[in-house]
What we know:
Helices cover 44% and strands 13% of the residues. The protein has helices at 2-17, 28-38, 61-68, 134-151, 156-184, 197-203, 220-233, 246-253, 274-290, and strands spanning 21-25, 42-45, 72-75, 94-96, 111-113, 121-123, 188-191, 206-209, 237-240, 258-261. It folds into 2 domains: 19-109 and 123-167, Rossmann fold (3-Layer(aba) Sandwich), CATH 3.40.50; 178-290, Rossmann fold. The chain is globular, with a radius of gyration of 21 Å. The chain has a 4-stranded parallel sheet, with helices on one face. A 4-stranded parallel sheet has the order 8-7-9-10, with helices on both faces. This is Zinc transport system substrate-binding protein.
Amino acid sequence: MIRALMIALLLAAPAMAQERLKVSAVAYPLAWMAEGIGGDLVEVTFPVPADADPAFWRPNIAAIAAFQQSDVILLNGAGFADWTAKASLPRRALTDTSAGITDRLIETEAITHSHGDDDPHSHAATATFLWLDPAMAQAQADAVHHALSRRMSAGQETLDAGHAEVTASLTALTAQAEAIAASHGGTRLLASHPRYQYLARAARLEVTAVSWASDAVPDADQIAELSALQQQTGAAIMLWEETPPDAAIEAVAALGLTSVLVPTLANRPETGDYATVLAEALARLSAALAE
Length: 291
């Protein structure tokens, strides 16, 4: 009996030793990368509510506690989720996924505004939505792979295979962006929000943004501002990060602008994932540019 029990314990030892790594992410694309790379070896937490903007979300005590208990905390860097610089988080767990590509970050002008009843906030002087350029996302995925590998004592083959699958998805997205650049590079577009800097660079597009709430109908002053920008740029396409009200689509259509939904994916989409949603958005954008 004792011998049988010892054999059973020995057989169970690898499973007991390799507990799932606890990973927390401040932006959904980083959670997608961790899930894709780590698979069943990781337990990924992305606690931002569906109706919140991860860039400006402020976690409650319970959410901060979840981050503090993580083995790996994936940061976006570039000033995204600046609460992480003020909270007490374990240094050993922190991974800044853009630390190796700071020379490729895009500097912007700070813009202060508010959405509805929310407090005013500023879009930082560094563009933060890196993952909208699949090549930048690849660098972040590489950093995620390295962070998970460094913290795990086993399962490297699983991590390598997951990393290869994530890389394949990002390579396909890069090809889509490069195809847009080859056919429509230099085209001028307008956008409802200043979040497309990295996508614009990847596809060689020139995007001028206003700062509208996607769930609101623009007022007369906003339409006048947009009309002036449309006349200055000659743009024929308006990018939206969320589906706007029909009245908003009609208002910009009256200016000769075609609305194209390109989610910025900071938060988890209702359907699909980072790769499928961005692929669909790039396909829509390519089709609109070809018209």
